[in-house]
Design a protein that fits this description.
It contains 3 helices and 5 strands, in the order βββαββαα. By secondary structure, it is an alpha+beta fold. It folds into 2 domains: 37 residues; 93 residues, K homology (KH) domain (GMP Synthetase, Chain A, domain 3). A 3-stranded antiparallel sheet has the order 1-2-3, with no helix packed on it. Strands 4-5 form a two-stranded antiparallel ribbon. A hairpin with a 5-residue loop joins strand 4 and strand 5. Helix 1 packs across helix 2. The chain is elongated and about 55 Å long.
Length: 130
């Protein structure tokens, strides 16, 4: 997998993902024009989308309806606006079988994005000529 970001006008960035997808980012005012999600928003959206996908997989495995199930993510920041906690909440509709709630949570928690944050990778940064 290779992701390549290109710097555009202002605070806009366009990132190509494996020559399959393009993801545009911008910053909110006053740094950008807020025309696309900020990179941090995409990062958080990846966490909640992954947990939701694994919750959906659980429902498919047990042939349970997944309509009405939502996954929420509430980020918690400290005074320096550094992320300290991510609160994930799986909401089930009234008819969801209570005996499956623990399994649903366990499966949502198996999301590899969440697991990566729990055991973060090393990150290197280097300069290279184009």
């Amino acid at each position: 997998m290779l992701l390549v970001s290109h710097l555009l006008d202002g605070a806009k960035i366009s990132t190509r993902i494996d020559d399959k997808f393009t993801l545009d980012n911008d910053q909110p005012a006053p740094f950008g024009t807020d025309t696309a999600p900020a990179p941090y928003d995409v990062f958080l959206a990846g966490v909640v989308a992954c947990a939701a996908y694994f919750a959906q997989r659980y429902c498919r495995k047990w042939k349970l309806p997944h309509e009405g199930i939502t996954v929420e993510l509430e980020p918690v920041f400290d005074a320096q606006h550094l992320l300290t906690d991510l609160k994930l909440r799986v909401k089930t509709p009234p008819g969801f079988p209570p005996e499956h709630v623990a399994g649903l949570l366990r499966n949502a928690g198996a999301c590899p994005v969440k697991k990566t944050l729990e055991n973060p990778p090393r990150i290197s940064l280097e300069a290279a000529r184009a």
